[in-house]
Amino acid sequence: MSWSAKQYVAFEDERTRPARDLLAAIPGTDARSAIDIGCGPGNSTELLVERFANATVRGLDSSTDMIEAARKRLPQVQFDTADIDTWNDTGPFDVIFANAVLQWVPDHQRLLPSLVARLAPGGSLAIQMPDNLNEPSHRLMREVAADGPWAEKLAGAAGQRTEMESASGYYSMLRPHCSRVDIWRTTYHHPLAGGASGVVEWFKGSGLRPFLDPLDDEERAQYLKQYQATIERAYPSLADGSVLLPFPRLFIVASR
């Protein structure tokens, strides 16, 4: 699956706000080593650099486009290209930061305890994941995919997102390995200019990627046209022409 740093940062302020909220919940300020897994274009890594001024901060992402953007943004930070599910650096790290990435990585039952095991004593694994697979935005992605001439091409698109556990499921998964597990869910309401087209532009940088990548240019344009038409009905514009996009997210800070 391809990622575009340019498309992603079109809504940088809105995408960075959950990372700030996640970072604020990490206990302590004396980290010596921190890593941003799924760092994207470096916007979340920049927050780590600011918060943990005395730490060695690193970033990794599977997308070379994202890594190139991150290196330009923070030339003093080491960024590496790697897949999280095969990443084998044992650390130890005082902070492992995973903002809006683990929803794309399978087998959380194995993955999350393995990440905790790479923490130094007292270190924290900080996770934020969009919890929106049942929101109209994502339900409509699947419906348009299934109803069009591209149905066969897109048969596996929805499966690229990992089915998330409940809050209690993640608590039970992590508590045996941690001294403290803090979990909460927040729904942000992002005002997006341009009505339905603003919603489409938002998800072109994230949730729509698995549905767009397999299509050719003509199919992609037609898919987006049909998707936007359904979005217009699901998210009616406000008086000023904007749309208020509800966006639920699950947060976890697990400390060893």
Q: Could you describe the 3D structure shown?
A:
- It catalyses: trans-aconitate + S-adenosyl-L-methionine = (E)-3-(methoxycarbonyl)pent-2-enedioate + S-adenosyl-L-homocysteine.
- One of its GO terms (biological process) is methylation.
- It comes from Pseudomonas fluorescens.
- It is found in: Cytoplasm.
- One of its GO terms (cellular component) is cytoplasm.
- The protein is of the alpha/beta class and 256 residues long.
- It has a single domain (5-255), classed as Vaccinia Virus protein VP39 (Rossmann fold, 3-Layer(aba) Sandwich), CATH 3.40.50.
- Helix 4 (64-73) links the parallel strand 2 (56-61) and strand 3.
- A seven-stranded mixed sheet has the order 3-2-1-4-5-7-6.
- It is built from ten helices and seven strands.
- Helices cover 38% and strands 23% of the residues.
- The longest helix is centred in the C-terminal third of the chain and has 18 residues, at 217-234.
- The radius of gyration is 18 Å and the shape is globular.
